[in-house]
Design brief:
Elements (H helix, E strand, L loop, with lengths): L4 E5 L1 E2 L2 E2 L7 E3 L10 H12 L7 E11 L2 E6 L1 H13 L8 E3 L3 H8 L1 H5 L13 H14 L6 H8 L2 E7 L6 H11 L5 H11 L4 H15 L10 E2 L3 H7 L11 H9 L3 E2 L5 H4 L10 E3 L5 E5 L4 H15 L3 E2 L16 H11 E3 L2 E2 L4 H22 L2 E5 L6 E3 L1 E6 L6 E6 L9 H21 L7 H15 L10 H18 L15 H17 L15 E4 L23 E4 L4 H4 L4 H7 L1 H5 L3 H9 L8 H25 L3
Helix pairs in contact: 1-5, 2-5, 9-11, 9-15, 10-11, 13-14, 13-15, 13-17, 16-18, 16-19, 17-18, 19-24, 23-24
Amino acid sequence: MSKLVTELHIIGENGNMFDTDMEYIIPLYQRAYAWEDKQLTQLIEDINDVAEDSNYYIGSLIVSKQFGRYEVVDGQQRLTSLYLLLNCLGIKTKPTLTFACREKSNYTLRNIEELLLENRSKIDMDRIEPGIQRGIRILSHELTKDHFDRESFMEKLAKIIVYRIEVPENTDLNRYYEIMNTRGEQLEQHDILKATLMSYLSDDSEKGLFAKIWDACSDMTGYVQMHFISKNNAVREAIFGSEWNSMPPNSWQKYKKAISGTTQETTGHKICDLIEKNFKVEDDEGYVDGDVRVRFESVIEFPYFLLHTLKVYVSLYGVTHEIATSKIVDELLDDKKLLDAFNRVVSCGITDTGRIADSKEDFARGFIICLLRTRYLFDKYIIKREYANDSADGEWSLKSLYVSGQQSKKKAYYGNSEFTRSGECTRTNDWGTKTNIMMQSALRVSYTSPKVMHWITKLLIWLSEADCKNIKNDAITKFDKVAENIAIDAVRENFFQVCSNGVYAMGVNTPHIVFNYLDYLLWNDDRNGKKKKYSDFVFEFRNSVEHWYPQNPSEGTFEQWKDGVDQFGNLCIIQRNVNSKFSNMSPEAKKSTFKDMIVKGSIKLRIMSELTEKNGDKPASLYWKERAYKAHEEEMLGHLKKACNIE
């Protein structure tokens, strides 16, 4: 790790992070302490979420050493909150945190104990800073709740790490601070990881090569090919071929030849770049049919992409933990544990060739190659959001980068990624592209947290295995089935194996993937049929499971349903912002009131609405409750059971 980066444990055997002779001072150009309930309760929750077997990175502290003390450039809100937290826990701290020219703030910090004991007679309340006092009150309240487990909390707090990062000497701090706060360009955990991995390389030219590949991959906008910028596109063509669309090589020597001898503009931003007055980040855009300008948005951010790639690397190289009973990677994709995840692989990982710790240089080379190749596959085969011209309404997209023109006039454009056998027509490919888009978007809207997007890892591993053999032959035509099998496994495990004795009544706890996979099946059946009723259907973030016949009818206007209301046949998935208005209405009222929402909603919901009709002298709601829901449930479960091979 760089000499300018220091790992700080909040508490440890030798005291806490404020047990130091070095003072932290908050400069006057920074705003006063301002964290409130949301940030402070999140801090407590983050600490409580720490696993027993790993350290947990909670942020970085950017400092500048000035006259024998650390001037805090960025991270003062978290630093002050940690200082307050330790005091609220009764942990003694040295008076090493001060605010420049803010006498009230300093007075309050020195009298935290009296404020906690409410010894108002011993302090001058007119000298108390309200923001810090509020923070003390919120933390004290959280730490004294009935369910708070102090012993467990202290054990987890001991695993919390902050990275203190010193900016280079002679940096214009005012300019740096302005940039950090207006552009959001901060030194993050992945920046520290980059420096750590580069430190494994002994040759400066190799470090430069590593940085260029890393910087290109770290920009998740657009396609990675467009982040390799050089004269006459020499680097881009050396890596991706003359058409800019070939798989990057799996040889370190080829990268050295392709990049080291050319002038390459990196897409990363150094501090010296950021403080330039004319600094700006260029948009990465391209064109599709005609002159329609498009931009693309990734479904995950770079720290999560690094975690996916690490799992791909572990799979490709058969990395296991040196302790046979321990996992080499966590199941959860937690960006706050990014450094810990890589440290475990490097420190404890073993392969057929030996311990990774004994060949860190080889690991750095191997991982950066894996990163670029995985990013290429990610761009080409994992869905993204596509925005045309200046539209704010995006759509799901699976496109590849292509090139038109000759030599210096070459220009990138984007067309559907190919999922066909050799020689098949464009129409056949469009069919395959649509199927892949629908299946992946069903998975995307089912798993909204990036921490549980394991489907991306599984697809990337399938694409990468055996030197990417599956994209080099007709196996790519099965890619939609690979994605579908991920959905099938989830529905089997979390629905059919949970529900017993033929009763499917999980209510609002029914996993979203069950509804979305069912909608995919209904859409696919409709596409293969003649009616084409659902050709307009798209997967959106419908995140609220609701009862069609309500649990609690509005003001007792119709009969409550006690014994079957949670059945799968009576459930639908809708957008959360409709929830409060939708909940307690009768099925007839929902059908008429939310007509526009229903016609654009889940296919299952559309079918339920169509089935809500009176039968003879029976009102629609009563008929739905007594008979219609059951027939609907049997039909829907039939689709799922057939697809999941459930008897």
